[in-house]
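Data deposition worksheet. Section B asks for the primary sequence of the deposited chain exactly as it was used as input, without tags or linkers unless they were present during the calculation. Section C holds the resulting structure in token form. Section D is free text for depositor observations; keep each observation to a single sentence. Incomplete worksheets are returned to the depositor.
Section A, Depositor: J.P.
Section B:
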Amino acid sequence: MQNLDELMKMAQQAQEKLLQAQESLDRVIVEGMSGGGLVKIRASAKGRIIAVDIDESLLQPSEKQMLEDLVAAAINDARGKADVAAQQSISEATGGMQLPPGFKMPF
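Section C:
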């Protein structure tokens, strides 16, 4: 039974590491941008939007559609970078062990 006890202890330690990694994701900050940096979005690796920076040159009524497109693109860029940061954090927490396909962390 010692092997089972060791296995259970290892599983508990892995679960604790994953929980710590999840908690740390809100402190990992990424920046997405579009329009050559005219629109910047700062977000946490959990996907929480922290800040939006829009260059003043885009704040004209005639630029409304372009500004909306650039904001959406910058958010998507930040989200993609947040996903990469989250994957790296989870990979570090699991020691590089691959999670089953389709397995999603609850965040």
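Section D:
The chain has one domain: 2-93.
The two ends are 35 Å apart (CA to CA).
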